[in-house]
Task: inverse folding
């Protein structure tokens, strides 16, 4: 009986180590083609980068997500400014064994609930005016800064 219990515990430990994907009702399939050594190397790289980010600034621990797959580092999350984004990317490149860095970190805006609600209200009023008044003309001014759209202004006139 003790042998059976120990076999069940050991098999449970090995099954839980394999990354799986849930398909349907209770069907799991292991989808990771990497060897155990590659998985360990990726895990070490991920923990190393996360530790360095947390030691640099504590807020990075929660605001930045790090994933490593075959030596490629994937970064996601939000930071306060472009300098922080560059700093985090540089730290990722300094990780031993890295092949590439995919940076999907966004820079936080100065928006809040009130400003978002105001923007939605103005947009809906403008759309209503454009839909119901066929004689409405408008100018659309778009401003670019470093190949990114920074502001779009629409001035309707009747």
Result:
């Amino acid at each position: 009986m003790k042998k059976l219990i120990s076999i069940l515990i050991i098999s449970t430990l090995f099954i839980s180590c394999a990354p799986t994907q849930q398909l349907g009702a209770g069907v799991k399939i292991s989808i990771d083609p990497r060897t155990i050594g590659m998985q360990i190397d990726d895990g070490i790289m991920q923990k190393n980068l996360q530790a360095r980010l947390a030691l640099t600034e504590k807020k990075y621990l929660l605001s930045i997500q790090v994933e490593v797959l075959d030596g490629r580092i994937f970064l996601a999350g939000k930071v306060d400014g472009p300098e922080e984004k560059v700093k985090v990317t540089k730290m990722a490149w300094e990780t031993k064994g890295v092949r590439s860095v995919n940076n999907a970190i966004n820079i936080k805006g100065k928006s809040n609930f009130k400003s978002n609600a105001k923007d939605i209200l103005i947009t809906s009023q403008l759309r209503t005016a454009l839909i119901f008044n066929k004689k409405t003309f408008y100018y659309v001014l778009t401003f670019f800064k470093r190949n990114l759209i920074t502001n779009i202004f629409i001035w309707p006139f009747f």
